[in-house]
Amino acid sequence: MKVIDIISTLVVLLVIAASVTTVAAPKEDGGLTTDLIDQLRNSYKRDAKDQAIYNALTANDINALAVNRDKLIAHSTIFNKELKVGDITNQQGTGRCWMFAGMNMLRPTVVNKLSIGTFKLSTNYLFFWDKLEKANTFLEAMIALANRGIDDRELGIWLKDPCADGGWWSYVVELVDKYGVVPEEIMPETYASANSGNLNTILFRKLRQDASAIRTMFKAGKTVEQLRIEKERMMGEVYRIVALNFGEPPQKFSWRYVGKDSIPVPAKEYTPKQFYTDVIGLSLSDMVCIFDYPGKEYFKLYRLQGSRNFYDKTDLTFINLPIDSLKRYALTTILSDQPVYFACDVGQDQYGGNSKGIMAKGMYDYNSIYGLNCGLTKAERIAYLDSYPNHAMIFTGVDTANGKATKWKVENSWGTARGDSGWWTMYDDWFNEYVYIVIIDKKYLTKEVLSILDTKPTILPPWDPMWEYTKGMEK
């Protein structure tokens, strides 16, 4: 090597070393110094107004103080279009809102078709199969990623939540298509299915143990075929754990109901898939997932990598459209006597106390209390992890003026003790800000929008902010 080359190499190495030292070493500038603390103390002058706010905040919940009373007074529960649906459901201590919303969307068909007052589908039945499918998908991911380092970003996402409760509309479609449905009384809730936290802790640890075993086998030179044989044994253990907590799903069952004029209908035997076909019969494959994802290009098709619950199915795929399109399609659907499944950020400007259920922009006036504006745009809230769709519900009514929606009737799955006996009123300005997803039948979409389904989807990585929906569901 020439002397000049050696010198050049040394210079490069010295520059790299210097940059590493500069990044890693603590800096005097930028710290919370004594001078800065004194400056902050001096800038805070508690006047009479601040003293009153201080007295109130230190003795009360901030939301109780920040509720916008003008919004409460203006609130109305009158809708000029309401659908006939069943009783309010309760997901209890689980993150199954997506499943309850899916079942609630199907129930009106049964209520109207059979002329019965109310009807509920078993969420425990689908929960069993969802846990099993997610566990299998997780173990297959561990096989596929066995050659990655333990600090790999994608591997870490899988290990964080091996088979969490959360899910998408597509999960409903896949579960119903493969396993069918059963009435609630055929496979009712158990304590564990209604309160999944402790079971999830056990399942997560068991699956992480399995992940470690798979990676150890891979390092020892085992083939994919050998790893899958071991996976099948592991799935047997998962099945046993879930069956002990939820009970085993029925393969056949007998069901009858009290029909029109209170006359009992003779019992009939069904398989779960036959029950769906005969009693419900909706084609879920005709439903399209529409997002409002500002920050991503509109009128494009996207696919969220790693978002499926079935290993052998397709990841969630959606069309990204402006919010006005979501509202227009939702309105058309409700006016056609069909409920609408949607997902939103339920943690924002939502009031469920005093027998009221209100979702209205500015429901909590924090700015008046603190004297500052903490607002972000919808796109900024997503990009900076301040907001994402964390709860699914259904629209069952709408109030319109001059052909446009002013507010929406929402059926929730939190039981009757919260909101207006389990119902919420969503004002249209809240829809703009916090609704992210609606599920719409193909027949209501324009040809231009439908043609987007034939394009190649843009793949979004597993660390995309929207991926949090399946992991961090509310309870």
Entry summary:
This protein has 475 residues and is an alpha+beta fold. It has helices spanning 3-24, 34-43, 48-57, 62-66, 69-74, 97-114, 123-144, 153-160, 169-179, 191-194, 197-219, 224-246, 272-280, 323-335, 366-370, 378-383, 428-434, 447-451; strands at 81-82, 253-255, 268-270, 287-291, 300-304, 317-320, 340-344, 350-351, 358-359, 391-401, 404-411, 423-427, 435-441, 458-460.
Summarize the structure in words.
- The protein has one domain (81-470): Alpha-Beta Complex (Cathepsin B, Chain A).
- The protein has helices at residues 3-24, 34-43, 48-57, 62-66, 69-74, 97-114, 123-144, 153-160, 169-179, 191-194, 197-219, 224-246, 272-280, 323-335, 366-370, 378-383, 428-434, 447-451; strands spanning 81-82, 253-255, 268-270, 287-291, 300-304, 317-320, 340-344, 350-351, 358-359, 391-401, 404-411, 423-427, 435-441, 458-460.
- A hairpin with a 2-residue loop joins strand 10 (391-401) and strand 11 (404-411).
- Strands 1, 4, 5, 6, 7, 8, 9, 10, 11, 12, 13 and 14 form a twelve-stranded mixed β-sheet that branches. It has a two-stranded antiparallel ribbon with strand order 2-3.
- It is globular, with a radius of gyration of 26 Å.
- Mean pLDDT is 92; it is low at 1-22.
- The longest helix is centred in the middle third of the chain and has 23 residues, at 197-219.
- Helix 7 packs antiparallel against helix 12.
- The protein has 475 residues and is α+β, with helices and mostly antiparallel strands.
- The chain contains 18 helices and 14 strands.
- Helices cover 44% and strands 14% of the residues.
- The protein starts with a helix and ends in a 15-residue tail after the last strand.
